[in-house]
Amino acid sequence: MISTIDGLRSRLAELRSGSGRADGRGAASVALVSTLGALHDGHVDLIRLARERADIVVVTSFVNPLRFRARTDVEAYPQRRPEDDALLVSLGVDAVFTPTAAELLPAGIGTMRVAAGDLGLRYEGRTRPFYFDGLLTVEAILFHLVKPDVAVYGERDLQRIFLVRRMSRELFFDVDVATVPTVRSDDGLPFSSRVALLEPADRRAAALLPRALEAAASNADRGVDACIAAAQSSLMGEERIRLEYLNVVDPATFLPVDEGHSGRAFALIAATVAGHRFIDNAEISLP
Fold first, then answer.
1. pTM: predicted TM-score of the whole model, two decimal places
2. Could you tell me the CATH superfamily of domain 5-180?
3. Average pLDDT score, the chain
4. 144 among known catalytic residues
5. Do the beta carbons of residue 205 and residue 229 sit within 8 Å?
6. Taking a C-beta distance cutoff of 8 angstroms, is the pair 153, 179 a contact?
């Protein structure tokens, strides 16, 4: 495990010098998987895709304080470092970067930021306007330090993927953003560190969120308004759910579609259950 930037640079130089492609295609390729730790099966799929796409796999574990409202939220984020370390070793990860906030953000939370723009204030950014600026800032730092050829993300957070792709394109990082379908448990909930914290009754309530997305997809042939109404109807009567947003967006712009939109779209949902916040999405096809 590497905790300093100098240590990361040294390890990457070592890996690149000793990992030239045997087929003569040139320098070794690098894949980056950035995480907050508390790894689960969804992360395993990210790492496996990274191994398929590159010669060298780098995983970062960093609870980014710029993504949280308060320091207490950062400290409360679940960490399972011994279990994470054992899992990463078993998966054959080439380098694991576990910096402190002081190492990665030496100027503190007042450091310069990458701005997500107007889209960063929608959906996830509506209640957390600081969130995507903080996320993109640290992703940009990691892209600069690791210089990956590909970065791998899970599709549970499509807004993050859209914004990271835009950042890579507009800031000329030349990083390919690859994605892995959301890994779900038997009740349809995406794997998440927060799901494990739910009591059984709260988990049953949270499981209505993916069902709402299924209802949206099933009614997509009737248009976007019917699609949203069906999803909302499937949540009615469940007092444990506090719905934050339910939108249908255009994949090309990530802006809400109008009633005349046809073809591929994404239904996005976010809600709080028992004090824990969940996001999910589903691809739908509008007529």
1. 0.92
2. HUPs (3.40.50.620)
3. 92
4. no
5. no
6. yes
